[in-house]
Amino acid sequence: MMRRNAAGPPQRLAWALTGSGHFFTECLELMRGLEQFDLFISRAAAEVVRMYKEEVRGLPASTRIFKDTTASAAPVGLFYQGVYHTLVLAPATSNTVAKCVAGISDTLATNVFAQAGKCRIPAIVFACDTAPELDTQAPGGMVKVYPRRIDLENVERLKQFEATEVVLSMVELEHSVRRRLQCLDTRCS
Asked: Hey, which residues does 134 pair with through a beta bridge?
């Protein structure tokens, strides 16, 4: 059984998209198979949606979508109301990871990460730049990228954050999300 917030309805999953094209469409596909979640779309993620000619549709009817349209990131207040049980930040750019590590919360994605931490809500982060050499899908096809040492170091730093699980592949992301949802369904901690 799902945990309930103070008002009674089941808590939801919060999912934040950043401006990464790395596994962007695969993350949307994973979301299409979930129930009871809210989607937070940063300004950069909205640009990626257009670049990849991808649509944020086919999501469950219960999905609420929040876009980065306010200076104060007003939707983050929901984290203080007990609405969410878990935050998924995926895919997460090296910029987003660096800001999270430095405690900067100036986008909707980094702000929900900060608020989740302050509210002791577990986070699952799918960091994009995780190896010295990667193949990634760009709007024009596959390209080779070479993350910088600082990008790799920031991923390692983020792994040290409390209540934060950093995953390095789509398989790990799906497994972690499913495990978390199953754990909540069976009331494990």
From this structure: 145
**What is the biggest distance separating any 2 CA atoms in the chain, rounded to whole angstroms?**
48
- Domain borders along the chain are 12-185
Helix, strand, coil distribution of the chain in percent, nearest 5: 40, 25, 40
At residue 168, the 3 state secondary structure works out as: coil
d(CA 189, CA 183) in angstroms, rounded, equals: 7
Whole-angstrom distance, CA of residue 163 vs CA of residue 33? 24
Q: What superfamily would CATH give domain 12-185? A: Flavin prenyltransferase-like (3.40.50.1950)
* 25 three-class SS: helix
pTM confidence score: 0.87
CB-count exposure of residue 5 (10 Å: 0-12, 13-18, 19+): middle
Token match 């660096």: residue?
Answer: 98
Residue 143 phi/psi, 5-degree rounding, is: -135, 155
Average pLDDT over residues 136-161: 89
Contact 146, 131 (CB under 8 A): no
Q: pLDDT by residue (tens digit) across 109-121?
A: 999 999 999 999 9
Tokens of 41: 């779309």
User: Is the peptide bond prior to 91 cis by the omega test (within 30 degrees of 0)?
Assistant: yes
Name residue 2's amino acid.
M
Q: d(Cα 87, Cα 175) in Å, to the nearest integer?
A: 15
CA geometry: angle at 103 spanning 102 and 106, to 5°? 110
